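One-letter codes give the sequence; the fold follows as tokens. Both lines appear below.
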Amino acid sequence: MTTLVQRWRAHSAPSALAGFAVAAVLLFAVAPAVLSDFRLNLLAKFLCFAIVAVGIGLAWGRGGMLTLGQGVFFGIGAYIMAMHLQMADAARLGNDVPEFMEIAGIRELPSFWQPFASAPVALLGILVLPALVAAALGYGVFKRRVKGAYFAILSQALAAALAILLTGQQAIGGFTGLSDFRAFFGFKLSDPVNRRMLFFFAAGTLLVVVALVRQLMHSRYGELLVAVRDQEERVRFLGYDPANVKIVAYVVAAFFAGIAGALFTPIVGIISPADIGVVPSIAFLIGVAIGGRTTLLGPVLGAIGVAWAQTALSEEFPSGWTYLQGVLFIVVVGFVPAGLAGLWPLLKSLLEPRFRRTAPTATVVEKLPEPATEKVESR
């Protein structure tokens, strides 16, 4: 414990602490003061995407794993939360099954729903199940040294398979998904005060996630993860198993995605297969790429910026936004691999030679050598 505290203090530079303080003020004081309830709820939704993006930044930016299937873990957390909220509403109304099941003719609660009626079990499932699925998948993939495009295609196929599976299951809402949640652990979701509470939950979770990832990046594990990304065979030669290093990063990213999905459900009020399929998974990745996948705050700002642009521009250009999103992704990956976070170092490297040429040259005064004194030898 002492070692962890010492490492945290060593890596907690004043600039980083100041950055966290500024972010906390903006999220907890400025945003609630200047934004309406609708805009604040919209920002809370974007913060959920940012939590997913932080995990992708760790797995992809630091570990080199192109994760195209984060919608799987996002969906696991979201559906577990939705199932618990549906059963809580049914119990409050005195019904045996949720309302949508009664409409569909389902009179008995399915067996896989029953454990999540308990709030502790539901919370434990949100935290554990996405990580377990990621660990099993990562063990089967990375131990066989599957990487690169093959891993990306496999992860994307899993997201597509899960969306198709959920679409055909009427017991969990089918194509329309689960919606119409009335309360969140006893708090009415129709109350604006409780909606703000959800925003504060999302904001606090994002700050904690960023702090944890920052600590990982500055730890020995973070250095090892970068080494695996750049020189995997050399790391294996040194006695480390690159598969285990990748599995940890992949599990952490899945853990964050599951939490984000659980927060997304009560904030938005609906979860459906359309929210966890291939398109949302790629949207997560585009935000990380545009913001800067190798940085700490780049994925956060990129995810929020892309989500905001999608909401604002898709209203005016519903058919053109998808193409614009694809063009942005191609431009960033092809010409600015570091994302928007890498523009400042790029501009700095371009401008520094000009400033050096235009800087006034200092006058150099040569110091003349002092006359040597002749040594008279006595005879």
User: Anything to note?
Assistant: The longest strand covers residues 178-179. The mean pLDDT is 84. The chain is about 70% helix and 0% strand. The two ends are 81 Å apart (CA to CA).
